[in-house]
Write a structure and sequence with these properties.
Shape: globular
CATH class of the largest domain: Alpha Beta
Largest sheet: 5 strands, mixed
CATH topology of the largest domain: D-Maltodextrin-Binding Protein, domain 2
Radius of gyration: 26 Å
Structural class: alpha/beta
Length: 335
């Protein structure tokens, strides 16, 4: 039964005064607000390169509050290629990585980052550029000609060999010349040392805009079943907090849908982030969006292509089993 203290304050059966109950009721919204404020989980995201249209989705999702809507406090870092990003993963410096399909081979080598979702399919964003007024008019004209790539054993090298093989010329039907940076390859094209170069679609459209180059083809037809980009997660994160991985993936694919449904805003944001003209990004947009995954599902045929590419590229000395390359159970992602 309720009773009274000497000063007349009523006491409940639980021994809590009316004054205390009112104070707790008044403080409840503040307590809930405080909990909400501290609910976001820190997640460190690494981009293997900064000059990638699809990877800029990480910056867009952060800026638009999409990751925040999934309770994620995202931090984005940029690296100089897959190797450096995977080193950061091994050092525990990042939790999530955005990298290339062939980067899946690092998991076989023991690096703790493993693919959990496909980010992009066939390589529509990799292209062949030739001089605007040069002698090459079609892909059929490339037999026996010299094409510039970044480095020997790189993705640009491998794609060119696949193109040559697909034309029935064998993997060496096109003479491949490793030349590093695009400006070096462009100089060689101008001098006639090269007839063309393998570039990102943005680099190619930039040359087109400058009146120097012409888009000959992308590699979508040469390698139709491929995962050009994938999403990696650290095995420790997968083991300790798989739900956080799933929340990140929901945020990522919400961002992918935003990119698809909001062309003008996406073009403006990515142009600003990549420091490239909006015209070049707009020209690239359709190529990029056609290959961008909306749910992260792995294509079994693409996984087979990547298995064999890992030995061809020298990433591994053997052809790995498919189960070594990715972690099932996270994709496809349902929004």
């Amino acid at each position: 039964m309720d009773g009274s203290t000497r000063d007349g304050t009523r006491i409940s059966r639980l021994g809590i005064s009316r004054r205390s109950a009112l104070a707790l009721a008044a403080a409840a919204p503040l307590i809930l607000s405080s909990r909400t404020a501290f609910a976001a989980d820190k997640l460190r995201i690494g981009k293997s390169v900064g000059t990638s249209f699809p990877f800029t989705g990480a910056d867009l999702g952060l800026a638009k509050g999409i990751f925040a809507s999934e309770g994620i406090d995202a931090e984005v870092s940029v690296f100089r290629g897959d190797g450096q990003m995977q080193q950061a993963m091994a050092a525990g410096a990042i939790d999530i990585g955005l990298g290339s399909g062939p980067g899946m081979g690092y998991a076989v080598k023991g690096v703790p980052g493993i693919a959990v979702a496909a980010l992009a399919g066939e390589p529509r964003n990799m292209s062949l550029v030739v001089m605007k007024d040069g002698p090459i008019k079609s892909v059929d004209d490339l037999k026996g000609k010299r094409i510039g790539v970044t480095t020997a054993g790189s993705l640009t090298d491998w794609l060119t060999r696949k193109l040559s093989d697909g034309k029935g010329w064998g993997p060496h039907g096109i003479e491949i010349i490793p030349m590093g940076e695009m400006r070096t390859r462009l100089a060689a094209m101008k001098s006639g040392e090269l007839v063309g170069s393998v570039n990102s679609i943005q680099e190619t459209w930039n040359l087109v805009e400058q009146g120097q180059g012409r888009l000959l083809a992308t590699f979508a037809e040469a390698v139709p079943d491929f995962h050009t980009h994938v999403i990696f997660a650290h095995r420790n994160l997968i083991e300790k907090n798989p739900e956080l991985v799933r929340r990140f993936l929901r945020g990522w694919f919400k961002t992918a849908h935003y990119m698809r449904d909001n062309r003008a805003d996406t073009v403006k944001f990515i142009a600003s982030t990549m420091k490239i003209s909006e015209k070049v990004i707009d020209e690239s947009y359709d190529y990029e969006l056609k290959m961008l995954s909306m749910d992260g599902a792995f294509n079994p045929k693409a996984i087979e292509t990547i298995r064999y590419s890992l030995k061809d590229l020298g990433v591994l000395d053997r052809i790995p089993e498919a189960k070594e390359l990715f972690m099932p159970g996270f994709a496809p992602v349902k929004l």
